[in-house]
Design brief:
FAD/NAD(P)-binding domain; Enolase-like, domain 1; five-stranded parallel sheet; 26 strands; binds flavin-adenine dinucleotide
Length: 441
């Protein structure tokens, strides 16, 4: 009888796992996918919001692809319980499914600020396609939009909201924007830039309630004036979708605890993506990254292991890159490590900032900000990511970089970082795709 793989969650991690099982397996297995939503990429939702892509383009594995892979699907269904003794999953319609091994790839869900009125109609989250449809339908040119929370997700949709012709206010409880992505200098530069581009920014603002006022929303704050808006978007954090696993015996902290093969404490149960606490490449510690590249790498590694290969997961790099109003903002790795040796350079007149964090001779974290129109900003984003990701020794270049953190290129080229990054995929194969394009995963 063929091995029965049960994949729970059809997002980035789940679909990459399915693709990899089919690529890596020796004998054809049965793959069953249960997913509350059809497979699509959340990361492209900002482009759906500003109408640069149609809804049909957000999907990652349409029915034809799933059929070509020979996947049995239960779409629009949730797994509500896992019985690890009998190897059975129960769905929300009462169906039970037996498996030989199973992948938990249920991702995460948005969390709203715990204030009265947070669940009123017209107060949106922006995490799912359904929520994106709701936001798109509610914004018209001239709409007053308030975004509560100035973190990474808010910043991914900021350009799209402006492109729809809305007037945007961002409020943030922390003293600065992007508190989990850049340091205070970076946050201050981003705020100034946004204000210069017509966005109202209010940081250090504690929202206390939201009320309906004749179809509009009134937002009240502790110690700062209220705001009346047409549309409110809450981007106040996410939590892993783990509740359904309670009592199953699968061990979790912030995410499902996994070993170096991305296996949970239960031998035939794996976890991947936002819901898994995998290894962080820089710290070596378990971490929930909740970013696309980590979900993709987890999916590839898990898929190979489910297909019978022995692939150890080396860990993923935390990567945050956004572009707002033509300002590139990025941070990599341990950008806020207090133990690292940090150097920074600021060219305020050009809104250009670099911060490099060294641990010994290795670059273990970096922050970069600069106008997208400056070609060296865009180039340096890629080079700094490469230097952190490769973990290459920069002994020969460290003094130069410390004196001039803007001059990254010589170190990148002379250290042959590209060659270190490209030779093999996370599955340990030569990174040779069909054609001449090397692939990283
Ligand atoms: C607007 C937006 C922009 C983003 N931009 C970026 C970016 O620029 N860069 C970046 O790195 N990351 C970005 N992300 C984050 C990225 O999309 C996630 O990290 C990624 O989707 C995680 O993949 P995943 O497979 O773990 O989970 P998901 O993609 O969330 O997939 C989980 C799947 O599981 C299903 N599911 C949940 N519970 C159950 C259940 N009980 N039973 C069955 N199915 C279930 C869900 O419906 C979903 O289909 C963005 C996210 C959003 C919302």
């Amino acid at each position: 009888m063929p091995t029965r793989h049960l994949i729970i969650g059809g997002g980035t991690a789940g679909i990459n796992a399915i693709r990899t099982i089919r690529e890596e397996e020796r004998d054809r297995s049965d793959i069953i996918l249960v997913s509350a939503e059809k497979p699509y990429s959340r990361m492209v939702l900002p482009y759906y919001l500003d109408r640069s892509i149609a809804e049909s383009h957000v999907y990652t594995a349409a029915a034809a692809q799933l059929a070509a892979w020979g996947v049995t699907t239960h779409l629009g269904r949730r797994v509500t319980a896992l019985d690890i003794k009998t190897n059975r999953a129960t769905l929300d319609d009462g169906t039970t499914l037996e498996y030989d091994d199973c992948l938990i790839a249920t991702g995460s869900a948005p969390v709203r600020a715990p204030v009265p009125g947070a669940d009123l109609p017209g107060v949106h989250s922006f995490w799912t396609l359904e929520e994106a449809r709701g936001v798109l339908a509610s914004i018209t040119p001239g709409s007053q939009v308030v975004m509560v929370g100035a973190g990474f997700i808010s910043f991914t949709i900021l350009n799209s909201i402006l492109a729809l012709g809305a007037k945007l206010t961002i409020v943030e409880i922390a003293p600065r924007v992007l508190p989990r992505m850049v340091d205070p200098t970076g946050g201050e530069l981003v705020e100034d830039w946004l204000r210069a581009h017509g966005v109202t920014v209010r940081s250090g603002a504690r929202l206390t309630k939201i009320q309906d006022v004749k179809g509009r929303k009134r937002l009240t704050f502790a110690g700062s004036p209220e705001i009346v808006a047409d549309v409110v978007i809450m981007a106040t954090g996410i939590k892993t979708n783990l509740d359904w696993l309670k009592g199953s015996g699968v061990v979790s902290n912030r995410g499902v605890v996994v070993d170096e093969h991305l296996r949970s404490n239960v031998t035939n149960v794996y976890a991947a993506g936002d819901v898994a606490e995998g290894r962080d490449l820089i710290s070596g510690e378990a971490a929930v990254h909740a970013i696309e590249p980590t979900a993709q790498e987890h999916g590839r590694v898990v898929g190979a292991n489910m297909a019978g290969k022995d692939v150890r997961y080396r860990g993923s790099l935390i990567i945050n890159i956004v572009e707002v109003c033509h300002l590139d903002v990025a941070s990599f790795g341990a950008w806020d490590d207090p133990k690292a040796e940090a150097v920074s350079g600021l060219k305020r007149e050009r809104t250009a900032y670099r911060k490099l964090l060294f641990t010994g001779d290795r670059l273990t974290g970096a922050i970069i900000l600069g106008p997208s129109a400056d070609i060296w900003t865009t180039n340096d984003v890629g080079m700094l990511k490469g230097l952190v990701q490769s973990g290459i020794s920069l002994a020969r270049f460290k003094d130069h970089l410390k004196k001039n953190p803007f001059d990254v290129k010589p170190a990148f080229i002379a250290s042959k970082t590209t060659g270190r990054l490209l030779p093999e995929t996370v599955l340990g194969r030569p990174s040779k795709a069909p054609g001449d394009t090397p692939v990283a995963v």
